[in-house]
Amino acid sequence: MTAAMSQPHSALVPGLARAGVSLCVVLWLVFGAASAQDNKPSKPAEKPATERPADNDPGAPKVQDGHDRPTTYPRIRIASGKTEDGTQGQPGAVKTKTRAYLLDVSEAMAASITVGNSEEMTRLERMVSEVSKSLTRLADRPGSMRFNIVTFGTIQDLAGGGEPWVANADNAAKAKEWLKRLEAKGTGDLYALLKALFDQKPESATMMVGSMPGKPADVSEEELKQHKDVPEFVLAKVKEWRKAGNTTSLDITGIGLGPTERDFYRRLAEAVEGTYLDA
Q1: What is the pLDDT of residue 202?
Q2: Residue 157 forms beta bridges with which residues?
Q3: What is the H or E stretch that residue 112 is in?
Q4: Mean pLDDT of all residues in the chain?
Q5: Chain centre to alpha carbon of residue 14
Q6: How far from the centroid of its chain's Cα atoms is residue 41's Cα?
């Protein structure tokens, strides 16, 4: 009897051993996985979205989050996403037209010029006067229109990174006050601003300049060496964008330019089927 009972007992031992090993494996998988999960670094909290300044607040802080690093331009908006009734993306909606003003406020704009026969003023003062007249005409036009003013030389954006302003008498008056605070300093990186212009494709743009394009901040020396100089590089790029199908019209007004500068900006205007004028 003892021998008979001992045999099944010995047969149970390997089975219990195997069961114990299996239980250990299961427990390790459950608690080990949970421990590994606890040890994972926690996901950092998402930063709150940067609040954009109000469209019609000239004194609002400018949003410096960049659209073409390493150039320090703010995220300018020179084409509107709005439609005539203020909606976006509605079937059959008519997109609002936008006029962009690109203004040279480099240190060259501090130079004095003679207007007419005797009136002396700086290039900057002359430019502000001409833009103010254009804003008055823009506000008087029937229908829906938006506009923004962006400077190069020192970087300033009327809309502060927000939607271009509605063209009306009130906004035109605010923009004129904003223009009076501009100062002439810095070197104009015209290429970066033209790139933003042709990327966003507003219907039309008016550029007023008193100097030649400065060296681009985000272009390699190797690429620049493929052209005679910086102005010829800028001209070549504008022709490329135009050939790719961009239809933005660009009119250029020269402020106190010399013969060589006039020749360059005439060719630049012709490249985009725009006009060149001397102010």
Answers
A1: 81
A2: 150
A3: strand 112-115
A4: 75
A5: 74
A6: 35
123-140 and 169-180 helices, crossing angle to 10°: 170
Contact between 105 and 153 (Cβ < 8 Å): yes
Classify the C-alpha dihedral 11-16-19-25 as positive or negative.
negative
User: Is residue 152 classed exposed, middle or buried when 0-12, 13-18 and 19+ CB atoms within 10 A define those classes?
Assistant: buried
Amino acid letter at 118?
S
Q: How many CB atoms lie within 10 A of CB 16?
A: 9
Eight-state DSSP code of residue 183: -
pTM of the model: 0.69
Q: Which amino acid is at 94?
A: V
Which of 74, 36, 31, 23 lies closest to 52, judged by CA?
74
Cβ pair 174, 58 in contact under 8 A: yes
Residues pairing with 113 in the sheet: 121
Measured over the CA atoms of residue 198, residue 247, residue 263 and residue 152, the dihedral's sign is negative
Say which amino acid occupies 99. Answer: R
Sign, CA dihedral 36-39-41-43, equals positive
Strand partners, 151: 103, 156
Closest CA to 147 of 156, 134, 155, 276: 134
Q: How confident is the model at residue 261 (pLDDT cuts 50, 70, 90)?
A: very high
* Structure tokens belonging to residue 81: 């996403």
